[in-house]
Write a structure and sequence with these properties.
heterodimer, A: 385 residues, ABC transporter involved in vitamin B12 uptake, BtuC, two-stranded antiparallel ribbon, 2 strands, B: mainly alpha, 2 domains, two-stranded antiparallel sheet, 18 helices
């Protein structure tokens, strides 16, 4: 029974990470109808921010090092939120009303982010900055000179390609200098060591130990969930976000700046992904492919929970987390050793992490046969709702 | 000119069949064989995405199922692959002494040929019907197919005792009619087979996209509600087209497998299935020529870039996704047919005279006002 409880605790902590990531995804999806395939990579960015902050705090001595984690959480939120806002302003906004295309474009973004983390080095950063600077200045200059000519767009594209080439040359010219061209992170997995106050146990309930990391993650996600709920239901921007989610055109007519609402929501969702990434560093190592492992589970949470209702997201992620950890670890067999042989075979068959995912998917498909719009479908009068 | 247009497909087919094998090395020819195999998948995706508006991110399932069917037949029918019990060697590593039941049909070549396309089609039918029945569409459909892909991936990856898990099945060392599948002679035959099957796939897709059935598909893509209100039930249409696409992907996967020499769960990775979509997007969706162009072009580009600068490929690919979606939503073929080239030339002042009504050409004075306000000067 003890094992069973600790499995449930494990499941709850997985669920908490899922919840953090899926909440961001669900809010954005509910508001803009956009699925962000780069969401997992934003989590990855959050994890790398934590790694960097940890390394920055290391030389400051052991006493201050203990404090790095809260700082990392806040920074992870801020930086990924900024990346999200940038993404929304430059790309997603251009694709408004074309959700499937947005899906593909964000996948492109995720590929770029993965490779960027693998191969970013000082020389590459300089090259990128040079290319962007030349491109921006050049396009501004050209807009002033020939902005009204019909061939402006094509020449502008050519100019951007040219600035990209210059960036590549800059990177290449520094490739012989080792300090500049060696990648910061590389493709390998990196380890983040949790601060001491998180390691070890935080007390006992009965005979079950409470591992600090897992309890902390659960508390963190509860705290953030309450924060998001408060933001959505009590603040002025939250009111606007809810209004736009319900009826975009009507809100626009009533003077709500929907484009700024989009930016803020996307930033919020991305920031939550960043925090989820920072939380993942406590559970395992950090690598460029970290995001892909979680993103599909997040999608399943959204499909199961329905859109526009945080309660659905919460219940769905708890359900998926617990099914994954309890079934996947095979602890059902230990708790109920006297199952009939036929049932036992079935349980053993699903008792690996990958097979528990299979079970979860079958469960979702069956569930959708009865509730096609998730647990708590949005009520409305449109035919599509 | 009209005769020439009618001859173009035959000329291309002749080039692919006779000229390319003569001028390309065995290695390159094999690569082109793979591209053409992938072009069949691209056609299938165009059928469901370009014409019906269903963006499936899970076509890798059907692709890999076809590949596994071919590989299972080859493994079972090669004497050198057999272990002590008369079952394939790899089973011994996992202590399996009896052939799993679902391997049995693959002893026979005819059943295998049928299973190549029928099993993926069947799976597509079940999954598709269960999803479409509930009016799940758009982005929801995409992420559910992606989840399904993940599930199949984990299943094939984890079940070592049934299908050799993450190692996959190697076909290079197997034999077919006494010839090694990995040998260059055999690969040439597979190349020819692929080149001949690609037009067949093209004709199948054309059959489904023209006529009343094709109109229904386009109606579903453009406005499913209106289609339903007009008294049609979209579910059978969508299911049928999903089944056809699944079957085509299965054939394509089998052709690809015998030419690469291995089938592994990596065929069902998330990234590979999304790549398939971008071939269609680059080539031009909603037309049947576009996907073929896109699949060959993008894969050729991938070979070139990853041979020269392997770490650059993800950047190029990511950039391609963003570029095509934002700036070229109709793809290369759509850009040409949609007058992209003409407006490009016109913006530099090199314009073909557009055909107008003859009267207007004669009485040019009546148009002076219009011409003076338009930015392009077509006289150059």
């Amino acid at each position: 029974m003890e094992l069973f409880f600790s499995q449930i605790l494990d499941g709850l902590s997985i669920a908490s990470v899922l919840l953090l990531a899926a909440t961001g995804l669900a809010i954005v999806f509910g508001l803009m109808g956009v699925i962000n395939l780069a969401h997992g990579e934003l989590m990855m960015l959050g994890a790398y921010v934590t790694f960097v902050v940890q390394n920055l705090f290391k030389p400051l001595g052991p006493a201050i090092f203990e404090l790095y984690y809260p700082v990392a959480l806040i920074l992870a939120f801020i930086i990924t939120a900024m990346v999200g806002v940038l993404l929304e302003r430059t790309l997603i906004r251009k694709l408004y009303g074309r959700p499937l295309e947005t899906l593909l474009a964000t996948w492109g973004v995720s590929l770029v982010l993965i490779q960027l983390i693998r191969s970013i080095s000082t020389s590459m950063l300089i090259g990128i900055l040079a290319a962007v600077a030349i491109g921006l200045i050049g396009s501004k200059f050209m807009a002033k000179k020939i902005g009204d000519k019909p061939y402006f767009t094509y020449l502008n594209g050519l100019m951007w390609a040219f600035s990209l080439g210059i960036g590549l040359i800059v990177v290449n010219s520094m490739s012989s200098v080792r300090q500049l061209s060696s990648p910061w992170f590389g493709p390998r997995n990196l380890d983040v060591s949790p601060p001491k106050w998180l390691q070890g146990s935080w007390g006992k309930i009965g005979t079950v130990e409470l591992p600090g990391i897992r309890v902390f993650i659960i508390l963190l996600s509860i705290f953030l969930l309450i924060g998001v709920l408060w933001f959505l239901s009590k603040s002025a921007w939250g009111l606007r976000i809810r209004a736009v989610t319900q009826n975009r055109q009507m809100s626009n007519c009533l003077g709500i700046p929907t484009d700024r609402v989009d930016s803020i929501t996307f930033g919020l969702g991305s920031g939550l992904a960043g925090v989820a990434g920072a939380a993942i560093t406590l559970l395992g190592s950090v690598g460029p492919n970290l995001g892909t492992a979680y993103i599909v589970s997040c999608f399943m949470v959204i499909v199961l929970g329905g859109v526009g209702n945080l309660l659905g997201t919460v219940l769905a992620s708890i359900m998926l987390g617990i099914i994954q950890s309890v079934v996947g670890s095979g602890s059902i067999l230990i708790v109920f050793p006297n199952l009939p042989p036929a049932l036992k075979g079935v349980v053993e068959f699903f008792a690996t992490t990958s097979m528990s995912l299979v079970l979860v998917f079958i469960f979702i498909i069956v569930f959708l046969q009865f509730k096609p719009n998730g647990m708590f479908p949005q009520k409305g009068r449109s035919v599509d709702a | 000119m009209k005769l020439f247009k009618r001859l173009v497909p035959w000329i291309l087919l002749a080039i692919a069949l006779f000229v390319l094998p003569a001028i390309l090395s065995d290695f390159r020819l094999n690569l082109f064989g793979r591209y053409f195999a992938l072009a069949i998948t691209a056609l299938a995706i165009d059928l469901i995405w370009g014409y019906t508006g269903l963006l499936s991110l899970g076509q890798g399932i059907f692709f890999a199922l076809g590949g596994y069917a071919a590989a299972m037949y080859l493994t079972l029918n090669t004497p050198s692959q057999q272990g002590g019990n008369g079952i394939p060697k790899f089973f011994e590593n996992f202590g399996v002494s009896e052939l799993p039941f679902f391997w049995q049909p693959f002893n026979s070549p005819f059943l295998t040929l049928a299973c190549l396309s029928l099993i993926p089609a069947l799976v597509a039918g079940v999954v598709g019907y269960l999803i479409f029945r509930n009016r799940i569409k758009g982005v929801y459909f995409s992420i559910i197919t992606q989840a399904a892909l993940m599930v199949f991936f984990h299943f094939f990856n984890g079940q070592q005792k049934l299908i050799n898990g993450s190692n996959g099945l190697t076909t290079n060392t197997t034999e077919l009619y006494g010839l090694l599948v990995g040998s260059s002679d055999m690969k040439l035959w597979f190349y020819r087979l692929t080149v001949l099957l690609l037009p067949v796939a093209f004709l199948i897709c054309r059959y489904f996209t023209t006529g009343r059935f094709g109109d229904a598909l386009i109606a579903i893509r453009d406005d499913e509600q209106r289609f339903r209100f007009a008294g049609f039930n979209p579910v059978p249409f969508k299911t049928i087209v999903f089944i056809v696409a699944g079957g085509l992907c299965g054939v394509s996967g089998a052709l690809y497998t015998v030419q690469t020499g291995i089938v592994s769960p990596q065929f069902m990775s998330i990234s590979f299935s999304i790549e398939m979509v971008i071939w269609v997007a680059v080539g031009g969706r909603g037309s049947l020529v576009g996907p073929i162009i896109g699949a060959v072009l993008v894969n050729y580009l991938q070979s070139l870039v990853s041979e020269a600068l392997p770490e650059l490929w993800l950047f190029v690919q990511g950039g391609l996704f963003i570029f095509v979606v934002v700036l070229m939503p109709d793809g290369i073929y759509g850009w040409f047919t949609g007058g992209g080239l003409r407006s490009f030339l016109a913006s530099f002042g090199i314009a073909q005279k557009a055909r107008t009504y003859p009267k207007i050409d004669e009485q040019i004075e009546s148009l002076q006002e219009v011409v003076s306000t338009t930015p392009t000067d077509s006289s150059a």
